[in-house]
Amino acid sequence: MTSEFHEQDLTGARFERVTLSGSTFNRVKLDGASMRSVDFSGTRIRGAFFEGTRLRGVELVDVEISGELGHVVVNGVDIAPLVDAELNRRMPDRAKMRPADADGFREAWAILERLWAGTVARARTFPEASLHREVDEEWSFIQTLRHLNFATGAWAGRMILGDLSPWHPLDLPWDEAPEWAGFPWDRAARPALDEVLAIRRERQAMVRRVMESLTEEQLASEVSRPEPGWPQADSFPFRNCLRIILNEEWEHRLYAERDLTILEKEGAGQAPVPEEQG
To answer: Which parts of the sequence belong to the DinB-like domain (predicted)?
Structure first.
């Protein structure tokens, strides 16, 4: 019999010699928890925060980690700068995603638009059904575009331009986002690629206009959006809004390219050629 726990406070609970194999934890707080002799073999963790976590006497073999690294010490070595340097070596444009001035932000955005144009062109060689496939439980290609539409709407449309509800019904927030009233939330939707790209072009043009008029004074300023909704923040650095957009665009394109490669290897890499009409 499967036990289910919903909306319960189990703070301070003690589990000893308990089997939780195959269990599902969704929006569960484990901050401050202590785990000893725990078997995580085959475990998948997404959308998690490990700030201040200490792992001692662990075995990390055949482990894949994808996320933001900062002061990650493995056997006495901070590996974050090493990983960062290696990624920059592999992808020289990556270092340009952390600009210091207005011209640098403009250059970074131009790079992203160019790279994304190539990725979209590659995606068009796939049958559209493949662009709705979720690879390894990640977003599909079309869902990724919908999420980027959401991100630019949030950080450029709402935070910078002051549109308190910039959403399109097809925008897609992150999976763990609270279900606020008026927030777009339809992960199951299957819009056509061109339908999503039409919204995408509008959002890209919006960011481009922000970048074209960007000044050093703006970069040094702060924005406030205390109104209900998301993002909601007081005195948030203007430049950080743009850096979040750059990061979202850069990282999600890499995810999209990775998944297109997997689909390609599975034989889903070419759209059918229409038959000639006699």
So the answer is: 112-255
